[in-house]
Write a structure and sequence with these properties.
Blueprint: H1 5-18, H2 42-55, E1 59-62, H3 68-78, E2 81-84, H4 85-96, H5 100-114, E3 127-128, E4 139-140, H6 141-175, H7 192-200
Parallel strand pairs: 1-2
Antiparallel strand pairs: 3-4
Helix pairs in contact: 1-4, 4-5, 5-6
Length: 221
C-alpha cells in the first residue's frame, strides 16, 4: 500500500529522528518519470542543494530507493552525502540491534547494500603490489575492498546458518512442551513492547520511536 506523500515524509522524518538526525527541511517533486541519472530533475537537484546550503544540512535523505549511480550523481549535484530510506533504516538497525544474530543480520544487509556502491569512484584507488593474500600484481584497493566485502558476506551467511540451526533446535524443544505459543506481531511503534511488558513484565525497552526494539523477546505468560 502506497502512503500519500505527506504521510510518507512524516514517517521519514520520524525515522531520521530515531537515527539521531534533526530534519532541517523537506521538498517534494511530482514526477511523470524517474530520471535515470539523478531520480529527480536537474532543477530539483539544484533546489535541494540550495535548501541544504541555506539550512546547513549535512545529508539529504530521499524517501525512494536510489540506484548506486543515482546516489553518486546526486552527491555530486548536491555537494553532500545522499542516502535513501533503506540506508537510513539500516543505520537505525545497526544502532538498535542487541543480540549477536541481530548484529550479524544487520551487518550482512549493510554489506549487501554497500557492495554495488563500490565503484571506480571509490576513495581508495592506490595500486597494490602482488603477494600473498592478493589476486595478483596491480590489484587496486577497490578490488581488495570488493573481495573483502564478498568474503565477509560469505562468512556472515555461514554463521547465520549455524545460528538458525541452533534456533531450530530450541524451537523444537519448545514445541514439545504442552503449552500454547503466542506471538505478538505488528508494524513498528504499534505498541508490541508495551503490550509485552503489560502481559509478562518483560522489561522490554519502550520508546515512542520507530524501530526502538529489534530483537525478539520470549517470556512465559
Amino acid at each position: 500500500m502506497l502512503l500519500p506523500a505527506s504521510e510518507s515524509l512524516a514517517e521519514l522524518a520520524r525515522l531520521a529522528d530515531t537515527a539521531g538526525l534533526v530534519v532541517a527541511g523537506q521538498t517534494v517533486q511530482a514526477l511523470r518519470r524517474v530520471h535515470p541519472a539523478t531520480f529527480v530533475g536537474a532543477g530539483k537537484v539544484e533546489q535541494i542543494r540550495a535548501l541544504a546550503d541555506e539550512q546547513q544540512a549535512d545529508v539529504a535523505i530521499f524517501d525512494d530507493p536510489l540506484s548506486p549511480a543515482q546516489q553518486r550523481n546526486l552527491e555530486k549535484g548536491c555537494k553532500r552525502k545522499v542516502i535513501d530510506r533503506s540506508a537510513l533504516i539500516l543505520d537505525i538497525f545497526a544502532q538498535r540491534a542487541r543480540s549477536l544474530e541481530g548484529k550479524m543480520q544487520v551487518e550482512l544487509a549493510q554489506l549487501q547494500y554497500l557492495l554495488p556502491r563500490l565503484t571506480r569512484q571509490w576513495t581508495h584507488l592506490s595500486r597494490l603490489g602482488g603477494g600473498v593474500g592478493t589476486r595478483g600484481p596491480g590489484e587496486t584497493q577497490l578490488e581488495v575492498d570488493r573481495r573483502r566485502v564478498r568474503e565477509r558476506i560469505a562468512q556472515l551467511r555461514r554463521r547465520l546458518r549455524d545460528v538458525e540451526r541452533t534456533r531450530g533446535l530450541h524451537r523444537h524443544e519448545r514445541s514439545t512442551v504442552p503449552f500454547p505459543t503466542l506471538a505478538l506481531v505488528g508494524y513498528t511503534n504499534s505498541g508490541k513492547s508495551t503490550l509485552m511488558n503489560t502481559l509478562t513484565r518483560a522489561g522490554v525497552l519502550v520508546e515512542d520511536r520507530l524501530f526502538a526494539t529489534l530483537d525478539p523477546t520470549i517470556r512465559k505468560l
